[in-house]
């Protein structure tokens, strides 16, 4: 999707992906990664996700990236926290407050240095927010900027893409394997099919969606 698409979504308040509560599969599956609690954790395409607060409360230094400044400001405003803004390489301003740091700009502008060798990453609503050609670029960049041995907890959705255009997009198991399988180890942690769908999926005639969780480990 183009940057303007996301800016317009934030401008018009069409942010149906946003959850006011912490993602249950983050709570359920994060412990499987067994990361040191004080280690940095990367949250790509973070929006104003409450999951960042949960990760912070778990002891992690949280490093997000979000294209749209309104979203970043809204995150800190919602927490009623002071934040400061500093410039960083590639002209990416970084908003920081309460142990949470969000780069405001394009994910593809991030380098390994921005991520402070984060050994963990939580991807909910990031890979699946992108159309197929952008997903390949996204996953390739992820494997370039994460350090060897880093782990990603990835959540995906699968559904009949012919019925609904996305985003969020359907990303089947085979695609996750193709995107990450060469340079990473992959384990599927969970899968759940549900017919209890949000209105935008129902309106498009979808009857079921399968959610999956993967643990991805970048080879050393
Ligand atoms: C579907 S939302 C998911 C947000 C968050 N992960 C969550 O679970 O609530 C995708 C977010 O990615 C942001 N985004 C889209 N393209 C981006 C890019 N190239 N770099 C950084 N952020 C981007 C959008 O503005 C939007 O907030």
Can you describe this structure?
There is one protein chain. The protein has one domain (3-10, 21-218): Vaccinia Virus protein VP39 (Rossmann fold, 3-Layer(aba) Sandwich). The protein has 220 residues and is an alpha/beta fold. The chain has seven helices and nine strands. The model has no long low-confidence stretch (mean pLDDT 95). Bound molecules: S-adenosylmethionine (SAM). S-adenosylmethionine binds at residues 6, 17-18, 45-47, 49, 65-68, 71, 106-107, 124-126, 129. Residues 6, 17-18, 45-47, 49, 65-68, 71, 106-107, 124-126, 129 line the site of S-adenosylmethionine.
How many independent structural domains?
A: 1
Question: What structural class do the secondary elements suggest?
Answer: alpha/beta
- Helix and strand sequence: HHEHEHEEEEHEHEHE
Globally, the shape reads globular
The helix content, as a percent range, equals: 25-40%
Q: Largest sheet, if any?
A: 9 strands, mixed
Number of strands: 9
Rounded to an integer in angstroms, the radius of gyration calculated over CA atoms is: 17 Å
Question: How large is the count of helical segments?
Answer: 7
Going by CATH, the architecture would be 3-Layer(aba) Sandwich
Mean pLDDT level:
95
Which regions have little confidence, pLDDT < 50, spanning 5+ residues? none
CATH topology: Rossmann fold
Kindly provide the name of the CATH class.
Alpha Beta
| Associated small molecules | S-adenosylmethionine
Give the N-to-C terminal Cα separation: 32 Å
Beta-strand proportion = 25-35%
> Going by CATH, what is the homologous superfamily?
Vaccinia Virus protein VP39
